[in-house]
Amino acid sequence: MKRMMYMVAATLLCIAATAQESEFLRRYNVLVGRVGPAGLGVETLLDNWSKEEPDNPDQLVARFHYYIVKSQGTEIVNRRDAKYLGLAPVLSLKDSTGTDVHYYELLTYDEALFAEALKAADKAIAVYPERLDFRFMKANAYLSYERESPDMALSNLIALVHEFMSGSGEWVYPQDAGAVSPVDKETFAQLMQEYCYSFYSLGTPSGYEAFYKLSVKMNSFYPKNTDFLCNIGSYHMVAQNNCKTALKYYDKVLKIKPDDYSALNNSVLAARKLKNPKLEKKYMKMLK
Asked: Which sequence spans correspond to the domains of the chain?
């Protein structure tokens, strides 16, 4: 599961060298190593590269990286929350009343340049519709841009789920040395679970709703997948404070997988919140 998380995150990092690296890609990697993905000279190189190799996947990704990085800035915001959008504070101080104030460094985006990044992602998707990493490029961009309310990120992922589960065509994801490999349904479910976790980690009402909606959608296609059932239970316990409903979903998980640690541990917490020692003891016994 941890490996899947890194696979998703990798779409916003540098372009890896491939076994058959083109001269443009070699020059690009050297230049980016010196000036960054949006530094001086990168746009000119990309323009020349696109003329020679308009459908080269590395070129298409590089163009997206250029605009997404160029569109980004940073700002510092202060909040009382000890964690915000899944981030730890860069600095924590006390105000005049002794209350902790936490400072967070957040990304900002230039609207016009961000729109260009989306166009670059759309072009890559149009040329290589089977590449999941290109779909994730766009979803990740929205997830970062939207912050507390990941509506477009969710919309993109829900559409992707329907498209993938329709069974039309073979989907691929890049592996080591730039080669692409087919993606089966199990791997796809793991990748979607990472996005569920990303939504949950936002810790906002809209983040929890996105977590719930994506989990429900995945559960409709994977009814025996305990991750998505457990997600739905956690939504009811954390976001809705409805421990009784949460326990119903955790019990569904335990019928499928009696030793599921997450479901058992969460069931203990739910029983404790319900102030039901007998029920808590039941799950504690199962947890051992």
From this structure: 2-222
User: What is the chain's percent helix, strand, coil content, to nearest 5?
Assistant: 65, 10, 25
The model's pTM is 0.89
CATH, domain 2-222, list 1.25.40, 3.10.50, 3.40.50, 1.10.287? 1.25.40
For residues 216 and 222, what is the distance between their CA atoms, to the nearest angstrom?
Answer: 10
Chain segment 84-129, per-residue pLDDT in tens: 999 999 999 999 999 999 999 999 999 999 999 999 999 999 999 9
For residues 48-77, give the mean pLDDT. Answer: 97
d(CA 126, CA 169): 14
- What are 105's strand-pairing partners? 76
Residues 188 and 200: beta-carbon distance below 8 Å: no
**What is the residue whose two structure tokens read 């199962």?**
286
Contact 214, 157 (CB under 8 A): yes
